[in-house]
Amino acid sequence: MILNLFKKKLFKNLTLLLSTLLFFACTSRTDMTTGDINRSLRVLVELDSSLYNTPDAATIDDEGNVYVTMPNYNNALDPANAKAQKIAKITPDNEISVFYEFPQDIIHTSTFLLGPMGIRFGPDGNLYIADMQIVAFNPTTFEIVPHFNYASRVIRINIENGEAVSSEVVITGLMAANGIEWKDDTLLVTDSLTRFSEQGQPLESAVYAFTLNELTNGKIVNISPYMQSEDPHLLIKFESANNGTLGFGADGITKDSDGNIYTSIAEEGVIYKTTFDDNGNVVNTQLFSESGKMRSADGIFWNEHDRNIYVADIADNAVYSVNESGEVTLIHINDDTRGLNGELDQPSEVIVRNGTELIVINMDASFAVAPGSVKNSTSDEPYNISIIDLK
Prior knowledge:
Helices cover 6% and strands 40% of the residues. The chain is mainly beta.
């Protein structure tokens, strides 16, 4: 998820006529520019706006159920009808339901914020969630506000017999916790902004690593904001351009079947590859894909069936594939739309189901980003999750 926040909310909606015109213009363009595969893009599920208004990230279990984080940032557009933050579950036959609603006692006691982002099942069978406090919705004031105070966390949802029974904080002290991935028994978390930098100074971001043992011993792991560069959990450091648009560095994270880790740099639209030795130590981190095609690179997902990485370009309403040589192929792109027929509407995450179904999470929270940083200009219903047939 990428957000460079305003301190004031923007309440602006397109008329139905304008939305319709944009939709037809977009449909014509996508068929013309990106080939036959676009014709298979459609709505996977339309979200019930009485429960959800802003999805962000997703994961999948062994039975094919997809779990989607719902930070519900678009509460700011209708504060009188604010929706609680949730995890939704989509079954293999595309039925959606609330899997878990975060209770009030998990909201941060200092910031009064909750921003569930990246999500993955751990080897212990529980769900681990990145709670991005820098960009979270304030349930008291109904605002999206930036907090550069190292209040971001990782939350565990405890699962028993397939049901979510409770949640608890397991990691604190991150600035912008965002992406989640597991490498064996080690949890990897992207921190998209490890310190505040003025535009023109390098944007610093990182990947942190935590063992399952230290997350299950009953103690909260804390990253000291004053010792981040020396913290033993720091695995990979990145510097990016800090170009003043999306404002995030390390964002999406995924691993391949050989245990290599890939990290997307959101604001630059590139991907880095990290290799490890037999003891799990980092051998090398180097640029893996820099095509100039991707305007941004948010959520990424490695598909074992075709050995491609799929990328959500949140800025350009696009999704791409990246092969093992780092070559980038456009899968779908469209202009600013309402997403009526599954068109991409500020896509923040991708995940592959059954090897051939590319599920795309449409965040549709344009009011919370800097003007011109994304194609999506209006946060409006319907709120959809899209699907593209890779076959």
